[in-house]
Amino acid sequence: MPGPDLQPIALRPADPADAEAVAAIWRDGWRDGHLGHVPGELVAVRTPESFAVRAGERVADTTVAVVDGAVAGFVMVVGDEVEQLYVSAAHRGAGVAGALLAYAERLGREQGHGRVWLAVVTGNARARRFYEREDWVDEGAFDYPAEGPDGPISVPCHRYVKQVQGT
Ligand SMILES: CC(C)(COP(=O)(O)OP(=O)(O)OC[C@H]1O[C@@H](n2cnc3c(N)ncnc32)[C@H](O)[C@@H]1OP(=O)(O)O)[C@@H](O)C(=O)NCCC(=O)NCCS
């Protein structure tokens, strides 16, 4: 039985009215997970405005987790890639990330993918530990072409995968 302090987590597709909350979680979480671990060129283009623009453009790919009436985190899934997974600092360590990742895995399975994958910045220790705890497998280092205004920016990452069919 969950303790009385654990709030229920509801997942639902994002709508345009969520974009502002998604952008704020993305902006702050991006700094938590990436500063000191990615090229300065990428930090320079990940301005607060860039997150607002991308959150608005990506509503259709976004599923939000709602806790006590507020957006606590989100996931963006594109094909077999879990592209973005962010939880607000106030809601970390409380099961929100696990609920969002389980949803992304289920979506991949329902769409017929044998396995799903994601890229995590090599120095993002908290996220890597979380994925490993959720039984994702580290397939090693590679350079991820992160989206930039003038073309992709190469970022040192690790590729994690999880089998989702026949499990
Ligand atoms: C990555 C993220 C979604 C994980 O969600 P979370 O609620 O923080 O995850 P949890 O707290 O359940 O698990 C994190 C694990 O890292 C550990 N951890 C916590 N702080 C840590 C730190 N500073 N360094 C290393 N490990 C850390 C936790 O103890 C836990 O491991 P354990 O289960 O073995 O104890 C969340 O931290 C987040 O949004 N981070 C910022 C954005 C980000 O990096 N997104 C991922 C992009 S790929």
> What share of the residues does DSSP label as strand, in percent?
25-35%
Listed once per kind, the bound small molecules are: coenzyme A
Name the average pLDDT.
95
Radius of gyration: 16 Å
Largest sheet data: 4 strands, antiparallel
How far do the termini sit from each other? 26 Å
- State the strand order across the main sheet: 1-2-3-4
Number of helices: 5
Supply the CATH class: Alpha Beta
Name of the CATH homologous superfamily: Gcn5-related N-acetyltransferase (GNAT)
Assign the CATH architecture: 3-Layer(aba) Sandwich
Shape: globular
The computed structural class is alpha+beta
- How helix-rich are the residues, as a percent range? 25-40%
What is the compact description of this entry?
The chain has helices at 19-34, 40-45, 48-57, 96-110, 125-133, and strands at residues 9-13, 62-67, 70-78, 81-87, 115-121, 137-146, 153-163. By secondary structure, it is an alpha+beta fold.
Q: Can you characterise this structure?
A:
The chain has five helices and seven strands; from the N terminus they run E-H-H-H-E-E-E-H-E-H-E-E. The protein has 167 residues and is an alpha+beta fold. Helix content is 34%, strand content 33%. It binds coenzyme A (COA). Residues 29, 32-33, 85-87, 92-93, 97, 120, 124-127, 129-130, 133 line the site of coenzyme A.
Q: Which labels suit this protein?
A:
binds coenzyme A; 167 residues; Aminopeptidase; alpha+beta; three-stranded antiparallel beta sheet
